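Lest this sound abstract, we think one record worth quoting, the chain in one-letter code, the fold tokenised, each line plainly labelled:

>
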Amino acid sequence: MSKKPSIPKGTRDFSPTEVVKRNYIMDTIRGCFTNYGFQPIETPSFENSETLMGKYGDEGDRLIFKILNSGDFLRKVDDSLYAEKDSLKMTPRISEKALRYDLTVPFARYVVQHQNEITFPFKRYQIQPVWRADRPQKGRFREFYQCDADVVGSTSLWQEVEFVQLYDAVFSKLDLKGVTIKMNNRKVLSGIAEVIGAEDKLIDFTVALDKLDKIGEAGVTKEMREKGISEEAINRLQPLFSVSGSASEKLAKLRELLASSSIGMQGVDELGFIIEQIQTLQLKTATLEIDVTLARGLNYYTGAIFEVAAPSEVKMGSIGGGGRYDDLTGIFGLKDMSGVGISFGLDRIYLVLEELDLFPKTVSATTQVLFINFGTKEALYALQAIATLRAEGISAELYPDEAKMGKQMGYADKRNIPFVVLAGESEMNEQQFTLKNMKLGDQVRVNTSELIAKLK
């Protein structure tokens, strides 16, 4: 007996209905990207390992899927290295390529490689799948799409302001209310590390702090101790966990806490500028708030950090995120090229819209009208009409086999096709069609123009 086929954990098959709903989200995001002046690019699904490794911190590097070299990949491994059985040492010898972890680092590589062809500031968007060797759970997959927009070649904070507006525009068009755009600044985090005396542990500090919503204050302090952050530094950090109030009140508390840190104060000023402009411009449906514990554990962020939380009634991780990176292209040899970008989590947004029943009823993979097949002459007559309907933007199809009427009608019913056309000898003689409404059960004789009008 043959083994039942399966797919890898963390991946999914998508039905026609699911694909249409996903396309609805992507088309909405793509439309907003275009409306805001972003241009599309695409990059390969895999990159050279050296392009990706070392760009996401230790935790990110562990989640990168490596691709084995072609052919006899063990030939380059000598006996002594093989005997050590150390996968970290062996991997560079047997794997020179890896699946992309996100779209930002490949974008940075693209900018450096094509810098002479690009007009700066360069506004690009990219909608493609990425892969992470993560533990699968609700809303977290090993293969998923990212929908990114970035601007490189400008240090202006107006870009951050526009990205907040872009988030709001997309979620407004998706009719997703109650979304919270959380914002912090990496300079604020650097300032906090400085004032508590943990500058040398900045990465460990931010990685631990970024897990606050997952493991709580006790879990964060425990991880910080394990990373060698002193008890005194952790005690100085305590007021940070209880910072609350409006954006203005949080900014005032941060100014007080970071008064002795110039980089920290710079971060507070940047946050203040964005908040002030958004208060004037106003958002349609989303809420912008400062979250002083938001860290996002990616090493390349240097300024503003964004993370988007789903409406409170849905238990879901972040559905978007991003931030400012001042030196990402520098790792590929292009200095002084500041950038800022955001990403939409397509799969999680899908789950949120599904749970809240927010997909429009018109979003469907269903054919609008099925023509019954009565025989060769009738099928040809039907296909001539189908061509006319398709030219008018009406999705139509012919049942391929001259099967019993019950079987053809059953097919239409199972496919949720709302209309069926019957065109036999009498209809052909009169150049007409019988249009049946599958939901109501009534039917009417119409000519071609009337058929188009009723289906539209």
